[in-house]
Description:
By secondary structure, this protein is mainly alpha-helical.
Amino acid sequence: xxxxxxxxxxxxxxxxxxxxxxxxxxxxxxxxxxxxxxxxxxxxxxxxxxxxxxxxxxxxxxxxxxxxxxxxxxxxxxxxxxxxxxxxxxxxxxxxxxxxxxxxxxxxxxxxxxxxxxxxxxxxxxxxxxxxxxxxxxxx
Length: 140
């Protein structure tokens, strides 16, 4: 049985963006299809997610949690992931990237090390010396 008692707790704001809002001088890679890659805010209707989670034994359920540095350091995110994995099964850590090597904070549960010299760039420090990666960092 699905618990509907908390459906009114989380209400997402209605946000509309004009096409011009996306014109910030950043070149969008060709593999990103802006007409189909977008975020649909769910408001307070969690039925679709609950239905997908209830069928997890029949097929994989992928949850993508996108954010910035508050997710990057993995403080609260790790607890959410661990609780979901206890209930739904452990599908792994997810995206792992050499954040510390690029000069930014990194979760404590993995380490990248190298004795070589690296050229690093991060999204928050421009101009970028190289193409920025999906994670907002670049190491080469």
